[in-house]
Structure formats: C-alpha cells, structure tokens
Design brief:
The structure is a single chain. This protein is of the alpha/beta class. The chain folds into four domains: 77 residues, no CATH class; 299 residues, Rossmann fold, CATH 3.40.50.2000; 243 residues, Rossmann fold; 108 residues, Immunoglobulin-like (Sandwich), CATH 2.60.40. Helices cover 41% and strands 18% of the residues. The strands form seven sheets. Strands 1, 2, 5, 8, 9, 10, 11, 12, 15 and 16 form a ten-stranded mixed sheet that branches. A six-stranded parallel sheet has the order 19-18-17-20-21-22, sandwiched between helices. The chain has a four-stranded antiparallel sheet with strand order 23-24-28-27, with no helix packed on it. The radius of gyration is 29 Å and the shape is globular.
C-alpha cells in the first residue's frame, strides 16, 4: 500500500481582501447580518455547500474569483466598512464598563462539554451547547471578561439520515480543524499542549482558540500522535463511547482546561461550570492553590468554593453523570497522586450517600459540594432542583436549599430573520439590536402595522416551505423514490395554512407523538376548512432506541394515514435548520412531561421572530406566559399516571388547535389580515423579547453570582489569604463545637389577638458551647401552616438580636411580622454566621428548636 503524507496549501488572498481573514476567524460575523450577506455574495453556491463557513469559503473559491472580487471597488468598500465595524465593536463602551467599571484583573472561566456557536463549528448536540454558545456571545456584547473552555471533537455530533423505513441512521463526518473558524494556540512558534495524568500514561491535548467577539473560547483536542489510539479517541465523538471515555473527557475538560488557562497566563477569578461535566475543575484549582500559594487543602478549598458557580440543567437524577466507584478509582488514581486529598476522600465528595462505599460517584454532587453558588435554569427548575438535592442539606427546609435560578435566554442577534430585522429596524430603531434588554424599545413593536408584520411572516413561511421541499426531495432521491413521489414534493405544505413547528431532541419525555394519539381527529384537522399543518425535526441520541422509535412511528404513521403532504419530518436538525424553523412557522409547539423540561429555549427563538408559543406550562414558559402572548396546554395539575396525563393533555392540545388557534388564525379583516392573531404576535414580541435573551441572563449571572463571588474571593485572598485562613480555622472550630449548641427556652405568647400588620414578639435563650454570639445567627422561622405539622407555605425568617448573656446562657429577641391573616406556625433555629460565607446554609450546619 502506498504511503501518503499531508501538506497544507493556504488561500492566496489578494491584499484588498486580507481583512476577510480576520473577520472570518471571529464569530462576530455570525450575528452580524452585513458580514453574512458579504460572505454569501462571494459565491452563494459555495457558501451553502461549505455550511456557511467563511474560512472554508475563502479556501474553496477559485483564484480568479478572488481576483475579480478584489478588483470590485464596491465589494472592497464593503470589506473595509465591515473591518471598521469590527474594530469599533471591539473598542466601544460596554454595559459592563458603564455599570461596573473596568473590573481590572477579573476573568471568568466558563466550562462546558459542548458549545454551539454556529453550524460551521459542529461541536454541539443541542440545547446545552447552544446555550453555552449564546452565553459567550452575550458576554462579548456586554463586555464581560469571560473565557470559554471546552473540547474540540474530531467528529463532533452526528449527521442524521432516515432510511426508507424511517429509522434514524448516524453519519460522523470528520472535522478538518484547519478548515474551521478556529486557529491553533502557539507558544514560541509551537502548538500549545497540556497533559493530564492517567494510570500508566499521560493524556496530551493540543489547545485551539475560537474568537467570539471580544472573548476567546479555548478547545482541547486529544487527537495527537503522542497519545495512544485509545487516548486519541477521547475527543473523537461528542457524547460517544462508553463510561470510561466519558469520565476521561470530563477529566480533560476540568483538569486539562484549568492547565490550559494557566499555560496561557490566565488565572480566572471565578469559574462557572455549565453542568457537572466540568466539576474536576474545582479539584485542579485546589491543587494549584495549595502548591503555588502554600495553602492548606481546607484553605484552598474555601477559596475555590467561594469563586465557583455550578449551573444544573437536569430535572431528574437519571440525567446526571454517575460513575461506578471502581471506574473512578481506575481513572483518577494517577491524578489523585498529585492531590493532597486521598482518592477515597475525593470519591466521598461525589457520593450522595457517602456512608455507602458503593454509592455511585455523581459529577453533580461533586460540583454542588465544591461550589459556593448553584442555580437551576428556570424558576420551576430551581424548585425541582432543590427537591432533587435536598438530601445534601438534610436539616434545611426544601424552599431554602441553596440552589437558586437564572432563567435561560437566547442570543437574540443569532436567531432573528432578515425579514423581521428590517421591520424592527424601521419601527424600533437600532437599539433593539444593540440592547435587547430595553423594554421601552420593544414596546414600540405595538406600532408595527399589522399588514407589514403579516406579510413579513408570510415571506418567511414561504422560504421555510421551499427548504422543506428541498430537504424531502433529497431524501426521496437518496431512496430512489418513485417519480410520482418526487413530483408530489412540490405539493408538500401550503403557505396559506396555519403551520405548527416542533423541533428538539427526540427523547420520550418531550412527547413528540402527543399529536398522534387521535389520528382521526388529526386527519380531520389537516383536511378541515381551517386546516393545520405540522413540521417536525429532531435527533434521537444514537443509543436511545425509544427516541429512534418515536421518529420512525411518526414517519410511518403519517405515511400510512396519507398525511405526508401536511405532516412532515425533516432530517438532520442542526443550528441552521433550527434557525429556519423558528423563523418560518406560525406556532411553536412544546409538549414535555412537566416538570421534566428544565428550561427550553427554542420557544424564545421563535418569539424573536413573531412566532407564537403553544406549550405545556413547563420550564421558561411558566414565567413567560401572560395569557395574551401564546397558549398553555393542560392545567399544570398532578396526574395519577403518565397515560392519564397524555390522554388529558393531548385532548386539550386538539381542543386548542381546533377551537382557539385555527379560528383566530383564519379570522380575517377586509385586507385578509388576521387582526386578533397579529395583536397576540405583537404582545409576544413586546413581553418576551426583552426578557428571554442571554444579555439579560448574563447580566443576571454577573450581578447575582459573578460579582458577589469576586467580592468574596478578594476578601479571602487579601493580606496573604488572611481571611481564608481565618475562615478555615473558624469552620473547624464551628464543626467541633456545634453539637454543644442548644436552644433552652423560647418565649412567645401565641394567645395574643393578632391582626394583619401586627408583629408577634419572641425571646430565645440558647447555649452556644464554646462559640461566640457573632459566630451564629439565631432566627425565628415562621409561615402560614399547612395541614401537616411543620409544613409551611411561603416560609420567612427574622434574625433575632443578641441581648446579652448570663452564666453561659445567651438571650436573643425580635418579632415576627404578620403580613396576612390565617393559621401560622413558627420555630427557632441557630445557623453559622460570618460575612465571608456565601450563604447561611453553605456549611450545612443548622440547629432547630425541638420544643
């Protein structure tokens, strides 16, 4: 067999077009309409075939075409104007600087196993990655000093094809990194490589960089000749391989990611884990602080905890990465040798029930135990997460478990259509693009003429239908379909018909088949005088046989029932197809089994484009729905069984489509405009767009988590870490003396006749053992009482004042405000108190009055 060796040829870009190389390697172009239009105009066919990848475009264009463009004065002027815009963008005043100054020295590191920036960088699978990409984009828009850390997959996520029977098949195109909008990180002219110890070997990874506006995303790639074939495959596939591959991916992300930043001279002040995959990052930060700052393990852990944020996206325990203890020992033994903490202690940090030696090792538990701040991704998901993890804080009331929420958003500028952008520019001005959080700007959407907005929406729908027909025609040709089927493609979907979109990962809890429960009723809807049509898309995980069966069932039942012209499934759901769908349908359908949708973001992208949401009250829609900006499916009640839930909610879905949506959509004025429909569209734009965007989300993370974390971190590290050391000693003292804390007496006259607005006095006598009054916080805990003893609705607490002590007994007093009438319950508790604690439940210590 002949031997082949690679060599590289770079494009010979004419001098007048050289600025395009810089623009192409900054993802700023991906949310800048003028940049997209410029690249497309260079050769629309090549632009489409290279998946809208400007680096690949420049490499594929023939030299004569490049010379032709360089000689085109108008085109060169557009290039120069675009370069000026990028320079101005990088240098202009930002929200962060205006509101929080320069934040000198602050760096936030954001770790995620996947990033979905654009279809041209296919290292994402779905919502988690796209959210991470949108987070980076908004951080850039806001001027937040943030760096992303992830992995660079040789094959990325799969491409989906359906065979003739409608069964999903997976293709794994190989990414050629040199053709992607990224570039290798060099030090002294050589590729930067970091390593992570594994038993009997070292895992080496090369570092690449993607530029996302003002900020960088660093990606680690293990496909190097110095690694064994097994090690090279660690970054071979996103969510591929077995449990061993997954734990090694997460070691590389967490440990290798921190080492890459250090090699680059980046010392993050705050680290943010986007899911538990990155939790090993905290161990590596502890190791680094111990060695470089000569800190004890406990002191280093205080610093790391107070500067770490963990965002959970999972509403069920089954979705958490869990590894067997034996697998953890086999893969962490070499790395644990570099830590001051024994391997068995590390394992216990990740066990929910650490008293059980065989309890699985949970990445989420490790993240929760090593983070000072944690949050879910919607208000409902915050409540679900507190319930799910209450075992880690056994004495803390569920409502007070220290897991908050920041509701997700979307990067508005990445998802709008050019049609809707022109309308917004005309009636909202430029500010909707520059500052999507400004509610006053979005209120001007009410001024958009119905006819103009309606015609804009209709053009987008026609554009989507053209793409749908191309997608299905390609599938038919691949399956050598009958000529009659190929001709029928042009009759698929009708631009004048109410069009419902459903696109997301095909997991069973998302219930893509809910609309199929009553096929006669579905057929009647499709064929009625006020018809409805449906566009589906989505991938099932390669190992999810049930998800694949959902896709096949949908495709086959539609075909059998002869509904294929009105109910279609599109192959290979990705960012490009998602963008087309949220821009082109009339209604976005979401049918998860409540409360299993942590947030969901596709409906937010739809709202940006004037598409209405029809959704189960789950995730973000619990907060977004206002009664006049879309529709709720079902009543958010508890059902006795999933079957009963599916039956009730599918019936409500049919009722809404038949009796509410279709009549409203087809009710027209003399201009053939659905006036009531357009009023709802405008309400959705005005109420949802300024809230459910990642600029608002990142501002919220900054002010509620990043900056408080930075403040605490600086307090701890000042004066050679004096407060960090003091905090460690104080915690040790507290844990040693906590068993001596006792509430001896509570005086509270509950026989008083109280009216709403009154206060109920309370006095407490307590022994603190060897602790001082300033070490604790004594609280009255109260709220409206439920049917069960101890059950409260909307509990509250007040801190009681220390009045003095006598013979070791401390007295505290205060009053409980009675803000409403009804039956109340109260108790008393003692909690740790110190200004540098991130929260009163951080240590998990709490002493309750036992009566």
């Amino acid at each position: 067999m002949p031997a082949f060796k690679p060599f590289t040829v770079t494009p010979n870009i004419p001098p007048a077009l050289v600025p395009l190389q810089d623009i192409a390697r900054n993802f700023w172009w991906s949310w800048t309409p003028e940049a997209i239009a410029l690249f497309r105009s260079m050769d629309p066919g090549v632009w489409k075939s290279c998946r809208h990848n400007p680096v690949r475009l420049l490499g594929l264009l023939r030299q004569e075409r490049l010379e032709q463009l360089a000689a085109d004065e108008e085109f060169v002027a557009r290039v120069n104007q675009l370069q000026r815009r990028l320079t101005e963008y990088l240098q202009c005043e930002t929200w962060c600087k205006s509101n929080h100054g320069d934040l000198l020295g602050l760096v936030i590191a954001y770790f995620s196993l996947e990033f979905g920036l654009h279809e041209s960088l296919p290292i994402y699978s779905g919502g988690l990655g796209i959210l991470a990409g949108d987070h980076l984009k908004s951080a850039s828009e806001l001027g937040l000093p943030l760096v992303g850390v992830g992995l660079l997959y040789r094959h990325g996520y799969f491409e989906q094809r359906l065979n003739a029977e409608g069964w999903q098949e997976e293709l794994y195109p190989r990414n050629i990194f040199e053709d992607l909008p990224i570039f290798p990180v060099l030090q002294q002219g050589q590729p930067l490589v970091v390593s992570v110890p594994l038993p009997g070997t070292e895992l080496h990874a090369r570092v690449w960089r993607a530029q996302v506006g003002r900020n960088a995303l660093y990606l680690l790639d293990s496909d190097l000749p110095q690694n064994t074939p097994e090690m090279r495959e660690i970054t071979g596939y996103l969510y591929g391989g077995d449990q061993q591959t997954r734990i090694r991916q997460e070691l590389l992300l967490g440990v290798g990611g921190v080492r890459a930043l250090r090699a680059l001279g980046i010392a993050p002040t705050v680290c943010h884990m986007n899911e538990g995959h990155a939790a090993f990052m905290a161990l590596e930060r502890i190791r680094t602080m111990e060695r470089e700052r000569k800190l004890s393990h406990d002191t280093a852990r205080q610093l790391v905890s107070l500067s770490s944020i963990f965002t959970t996206h999972t509403p069920v325990p089954a979705g958490i990465d869990r590894f067997s203890v034996d697998l953890v020992r086999a893969n962490l033994s070499a790395y644990a040798g570099e830590l001051s903490l024994p391997l068995e202690e590390i394992i216990r940090l990740g066990q929910e029930q650490s008293s059980n030696p065989q309890d699985p090792f949970s990445m989420a538990v490790l993240a929760l135990r090593l983070s000072g701040f944690a949050n879910g991704v919607s208000e409902l998901h915050g409540r679900v997460s507190r319930a799910m993890w209450r075992g880690l804080w056994p004495k803390v009331p569920e409502q007070e478990i220290p897991i908050g929420h920041v509701t997700n958003g979307v990067h508005t500028n990445s998802w709008f259509s050019q049609e809707i952008a022109r309308v917004y520019n005309r009636y909202l001005g430029q500010n909707w693009f520059d500052d999507p959080v400004d509610r006053k700007v979005w209120q001007q959407a009410g001024l958009i003429p119905d006819q103009e907005l309606w015609e804009c929406r209709q053009r987008e729908k026609q554009r989507l239908i053209t793409h749908v027909r191309e997608n299905i025609s390609g599938r038919h040709q691949r399956h050598s379909a009958h000529p009659v089927e190929l001709r029928e493609v042009e009759q698929i979907l009708d631009p004048n018909v109410l069009t419902i979109g459903f696109a997301r990962r095909f997991a069973t809890y998302k219930r893509a088949n809910l609309i199929l429960r009553d096929l006669p009723r579905l057929r009647a809807m499709v064929q009625s005088e006020r018809p409805v049509q449906f566009v589906f898309a989505g991938k099932a995980h390669p190992a999810d046989q049930q998800g694949k069966q959902l896709i096949q069932e949908l495709v086959q039942r539609v075909r059998r029932e002869g509904l294929h012209r009105s109910v279609v499934f599109l192959e290979n759901y990705n960012i490009d197809l998602a963008r087309r769908l949220v821009q082109g349908v009339d209604v976005w359908l979401n049918t998860p089994r409540r409360p299993l949708e942590a947030s969901g973001t596709s409906g937010m992208k739809a709202a940006v484009n004037g598409v209405l949401n029809l959704s189960i009250a789950d995730g973000w829609w619990c907060e977004g729905y206002n009664g006049a900006n879309g529709w709720n499916i079902g009543n958010s009640v508890e059902y006795r069984s999933p079957e009963e839930q599916d039956e009730a909610e599918s019936r409500d879905l049919y009722d809404l489509l038949e009796h509410v949506l279709a009549p409203m959509y087809y009710e027209r004025d003399l201009r053939n405009i659905p006036v009531r429909w357009m009023a709802m569209v405008k309400n959705a734009i005005m109420s949802l767009c300024p809230v459910y965007n990642t600029n608002r989300m990142v501002e919220e993370y900054t002010e509620r988590y990043y900056l408080p974390s930075v403040f605490q971190y600086h307090l701890l590290e000042a004066d050679n870490h004096a407060e960090a050391r003091a905090l460690t000693q104080w915690e040790r003292k507290l844990r040693g003396k906590w068993s001596e804390v006792a509430i001896q007496q509570v005086e509270c006259d509950t026989s008083l006749l109280l009216k709403s607005g009154d206060s109920l006095p309370i006095r407490v006598q307590a022994r603190l053992g060897g602790l001082e009054p300033q070490d604790v916080q004594v609280e009255a805990y109260f709220g409206r009482g439920g049917a069960t003893n101890g059950e409260m609705s909307e509990p509250d607490s007040v801190v009681l004042r220390h009045e003095g002590s006598h013979h070791g007994v401390h007295e505290f007093s205060g009053a409980m405000p009675c803000v409403g009438s009804g039956r109340y319950l109260y108790s008393v508790r003692v909690l740790p108190s110190r200004p540098t604690l991130p929260g009163k439940f951080h240590l998990g210590l709490i002493h309750w009055w036992e009566g």
